[in-house]
Amino acid sequence: MSAAEGPLVVGVDTSTQSTKALVVDAATGQVVASGQAPHTVSSGAGRESDPRQWWDALCEALRQCGDAAREAAAVSIGGQQHGLVTLDARGEPVRPALLWNDVRSAPQARRLTEELGGAKFWADRTGSVPAASFTVTKWAWLAEHEPEAVRATKAVRLPHDYLTERLTGQGTTDRGDVSGTGWWASGTESYDTEILAHVGLDPALLPRVVRPGEVAGTVRDGHGLPFAKGTLVAPGTGDNAAAALGLGLRPGTPVMSLGTSGTVYAVSKRRPADPTGTVAGFADAHGDWLPLACTLNCTLAVDRVAALLGLDREAVEPSTGVTLLPYLDGERTPALPNASGLLHGLRHDTTGGQLLQAAYDGAVHSLLGALDLVLDEDADRSAPLLLIGGGARGTAWQETVRRLSGRPVQVPEARELVALGAAAQAAGLLTGEDPAAVARRWNTAAGPVLEAVQRDEATLARIAGVLSDAAPLLDRGTEIH
């Protein structure tokens, strides 16, 4: 046995580009073992992945965990949200999964919004206005462009659902992840039959929504993983809801996550419904709500700018009037799915380091613009902003967020918060605790606090002005088919 105080649990993060697994001591939160394996995403107009790669990556990540994984008493899967997984009668993928950052369904998003009562209808009904990232728009795109794939589909799943089902043999999801599909009514917490009928999706193809704290199933025979038959499997959830659990978030605490996508969110006791579509009214994984705004272009976009300039990502210089909107993959916040990157204010004396800083500024501006909409009226606007994700430990990211937000910034020392949140969910099955309380007991949010600096209002105003003036050009963009 491992030298652990309590039972061991496994938390998994199946993200856009890799799958990570942590074996965690449920008593202390100590990470006993870890593993990681990559998977591929297609390039070009679409963003697709073969779900079977996620399973292979999970197997490899758990293999790297060694004997500790065999001792686990419970497991939970946190995964990238919104992805459309279509399975045939044998449970095999009909086609590669359409991922969250595949924006080909932007026309379908606009059409669905118009056809079913407008933005307010969708916000009131599902908590969110459809965007190209949402699963319902991807299903509509598939029905229009690949009707033979739709006819062959006998089950529709999200990425975390797919892996959970391969563990248990049962089709399940949770309220956190299903709230990002666009076909789950947040007011009644049930599938919306009117929306499903409108897009031609039979509710029988969808998984059962498991309640918070409920066991989704147990590990079955013949899975090829190190778990014993009968190991408990938690409901799992979407990546942002898992990270919220991993931080042990209390209502009103703001979070900014810097990864392939950028997000800002906070736990709320109020069910959100923003008809502008800026804030997605997601559910969290333990009974509350998780209003969230997401950008498509964050760390990868800034790294791409650094690579084009031949610079290290930290080689920034103070910007002097140049503006760079790094919308390399279209953008969700603001809603410009056909946009590309835009550079304004270039001069003979502009340096590469200034251009790079402008890319950081453009990415952070988009996130901060949505933060006030995410927070409830009674939230403490002076509380430290929790900075997480792959970019959170970068000095350039930290300093840009401090300068443009004017808030203190706290950087949790714990890594892999999505996997830790999944582990906390698994631990909650064993102890009967709220998973967020488990994470608080593990002290996962602890980390240095960077003091607030004066907010750079001039840069914020300049970027807002360029964005406003260029919006018609950005919106016209180049249509993606």
Q: What form results from the Cα inertia axes?
A: globular
Number of helices: 16
Tell me the β content. 15-25%
N-to-C span: 54 Å
Oligomer: single chain
Provide the domain count.
Answer: 2
CATH topology of the largest domain: Nucleotidyltransferase, domain 5
Q: How many DSSP-defined strands?
A: 24
CATH A-level architecture of the largest domain: 2-Layer Sandwich
CATH superfamily of the largest domain: ATPase, nucleotide binding domain
Report the uncertain regions.
none
What is the CATH domain class of the largest domain? Answer: Alpha Beta
Mean pLDDT: 93
- The portion of residues assigned to helices is 25-40%
> What is Rg?
21 Å
Estimated structural class: alpha/beta
Q: What does the largest sheet look like? A: 7 strands, mixed
Explain briefly what this protein structure is.
With 481 residues, the protein is α/β, with parallel strands linked by helices.
Describe this structure in words.
This protein folds into two domains: 8-235, 2-Layer Sandwich (Nucleotidyltransferase, domain 5); 248-411 and 451-476, ATPase, nucleotide binding domain (Nucleotidyltransferase, domain 5, 2-Layer Sandwich). The protein has 481 residues and is of the alpha/beta class. The mean pLDDT is 93. It is globular. Helix 10 packs across helix 15 (435-442), helix 12 (352-374) packs across helix 13 and helix 14 (417-431) crosses helix 15 (435-442). The protein is built from 16 helices and 24 strands. Helices cover 36% and strands 19% of the residues.
